[in-house]
Amino acid sequence: MPHKRTRIGLIGYGQIGKAVHQMVKDDPDSGMEVVFVHDQAAGALDGLPRSLVLDDLADFARAEADLVVEMAHPDVTRRWGRTILEKTNYMFVSVTALADREIEQMLLETTRQHGTRAFIPHGGVVGMDALRENRAVWDSVDVVMKKPPKNVDCARAGVDPTQITAETVLYDGPTRGICPIFPRNVNTHAAIAYAGIGFDRTHSVMVVNPAWNTAVVSIHAQGGGIELNVERVEGITGVTGASTPASIYNSVQTIGSTGPGIHLR
Ligand SMILES: NC(=O)c1ccc[n+]([C@@H]2O[C@H](COP(=O)([O-])OP(=O)(O)OC[C@H]3O[C@@H](n4cnc5c(N)ncnc54)[C@H](O)[C@@H]3O)[C@@H](O)[C@H]2O)c1
Question: In whole angstroms, what is the distance from residue 256 CA to residue 136 CA?
Answer without folding.
Answer: 29
